[in-house]
Amino acid sequence: MSRFLSLPAAAVAACLLAVAALPAVAEDSGYEKQKVVYHVNYYGAKEETAALRNLQNHINAVGAENLEAQVVMHGDGIALLLYPDAVEGTKMQEGNANDEMQARIAGLKEQGVEFKICANTLKGRQVELTDLYDADQEDVVPSGVAELSKLQARGFTYIKP
Asked: What pLDDT does 30 receive?
């Protein structure tokens, strides 16, 4: 009887060892802690989805705990967060924050990614924060391009997917 009881215990021990080995695998990947800024200033749900997929792949490779990531949006790029039905009354062609895009954004935010919105774009395109998915005043930066420069000066790697 004890032989049968030890089999589940051995399985549990093997799972625990596998989980314990995961951080070592991440360390062996050759990646150190990274700071990165993804620049989004274009229309197109397909392109914006690809940018978010690139960012998720980056997180998967490095580990969320090893990555400080921001997405800076200005110009057409705020379409990423713009609700599709909020276009009327703005100077935007489209809004891409449908349910699927919202799920992607929420998943990235849960992993520590910050999304920064250009105040100049909000004003110039007549977009209110309430027109944007999960955005509040602390997400707004005075200038998207100035924010990109500031982050690069602070050691963030610039990526334009």
From this structure: 81
